[in-house]
Amino acid sequence: MHEKQMRKALWQLLAEWPGQNKRQLLAGLRILGLGDLSTRDVNRVLYAGRQTFTHDGATPPRWHLTAGAGYEPEPIRVAPLALPQSYLGKEPRAWQREALAEWQANGRRGVVEAVTGTGKTTVGVLAAAAAVDAGEKVLVLVPGCELLDQWYEVLRLSLPSVRIGRLGDRHRDSLSDHSILVAVVHSAIKDWILPPYTAGLLIADEVHRYGAEGFASALEDGFGARLGLTATYERTDSGVADRLQPYFGDVVAGCTYERGLTEDILAPFRVAFVGADFARDEHEQYKRHDERVRTLRRRLILDHGCPAEPFGDFMAEVNELSQPGNRSIRSRRDARGYLRAFSQRRQILAGCRRKHKALASLAPVFAEARAGIIFTETAASTHQATKAMRKRGLRAMDFTSALDRPDRKDRLSDFKSGEIQVLVAPRVLDEGVDVPEAEIGVVLASSKSKRQMIQRMGRVIRPKPDRRPATFVVLYIRGTSEDPHLGAHEGFIEQLTDVADACETFDPGVSSAELLSWYREGITR
Question: 267-309 pLDDT, tens per residue?
Fold first, then answer.
């Protein structure tokens, strides 16, 4: 269908009924006689016509006409970005150009929030190149050694004429004799990085991490220009409001799931929720620890003054009370009891026998997929899942923090080459590791963190060579904090429902044949 016709029809719909989401607009188009369309077609026209259409940023986005929208709008024409002279990297995507332009217009302050896999690092590289061209120094803060190496390589290839140094992991370079310094935050907080009387740009990758009190001390005031990069700009404590927003400023243009899918930056994906039930003994143990958690949480809040919300602040205070230096025996005992019960409840969820049985039923799906990742929460469940996959003939390996860096690199290389079919990992793969393309991701156990789920999604929704969709499976125990029907992953589930090609829920006891049939249905469409 001609896009000009769709733009005109969308203008008519929004002029009469502003604030509609893409599904409502699709229904309206069909009433107007424009059939054989999908929500992806609607998104493509809406995002391409940003001079005419704008949204409120909600989930799902609700669309309106811009103030200057004409009756028959012309398609947006993006002026070519004048790339920095020192930049010799790949041509930026449209959203990357827009993000950089908005950040610059905002006084070179802000946080770019972009879904994992859409290329937020490129925005940082472009900002760094422009700063170097202007004679400024650039500090790139990263939370770990893997990102130290990744940023160094990307900068070295994209800015071949620029002197780039590293600080951390046995490297001791500085900004005194380098234009750009990539630094692990633990090393950066030890010394003052920016030379006196020097203009500089600070780029913080995984910026949400710097809301913690220790990491925040690396955010030097001397850097006039500041850029944060993240897939999900949120924390479970007050660190964003208290530390990050005052330093970096507001969120600027980024890349959402909707835009990533519309512009083929991300692969389309399907999601399955597979339920399981506790065995009787597991249920009794879970209830006992859950009641203990709830009782001690109330006591810690009412009797010992811990903040009820946000949860991260509550946990920080509980950890503080549990330390030997706390002279109050009662509050120290309650804090330690809470942390112990919390951990035991989590271990029961992670090791549930029927959940692992449900995971085993996905073995035929892993066998057909080119590569898969199983996300776990504990080392014990990681080893258990790896063993189960191997027992069913799959080349599976665990990937934990216990491995040294050479072994981790070797396993990622083997996963990329196909030598390893299934990678099983606890939180170590959630962020900060450049994971090769995977076709299926299975969450065996997870925290309540929306950010964690989005990071895990990002590991499997990069575009596939044959354009086949990605598959994401969430295993959960019914009637617990993991159950999406009881509010688990609330914000994340809403995002999934709006952008996934399909969302399916399977009851306990679903067979391998049913799951394989559902998987095949998706990749053969």
Answer: 888 888 999 999 999 999 999 999 999 999 999 999 999 998 8
Give the H or E element holding residue 69.
none
pLDDT value, residue 269: 83
Query: Whole-angstrom Cα distance, residue 293 to residue 298?
Result: 9
> In angstroms, what CA-CA distances link 111 with 54, 114, 147, 202, 300?
20, 10, 18, 12, 35
DSSP 187: H
324 phi and psi angles, rounded to 5 deg:
-60, -25
Residue 276, token pair as written in the block: 């399981």
Helix/strand/coil (H, E, C) string of 481-523?
Answer: CCCHHHCCCHHHHHHHHHHCCEEEEECCCCCHHHHHHHHHHHH
Q: Give residue for tokens 């710097």.
A: 210
pLDDT value at 376 more than 90: no
Which tokens belong to 134?
């202007």
For residue 253, CA distances in Å to 111, 259, 356, 524 come to 9, 11, 41, 35
Is residue 139 scored above 90 in pLDDT?
yes
Specify the DSSP class assigned to residue 379: H
pTM for the full model?
Answer: 0.75
Contacts for 216 with CB less than 8 Å, ≥ 6 apart = 210, 239, 243, 244, 247
3-state secondary structure of 253: strand
Are 313 and 307 within 8 A, CB to CB? yes
Show Cβ contacts of residue 477 under 8 Å, excluding neighbours closer than 6 positions: 275, 276, 277, 278, 349, 352, 355, 483
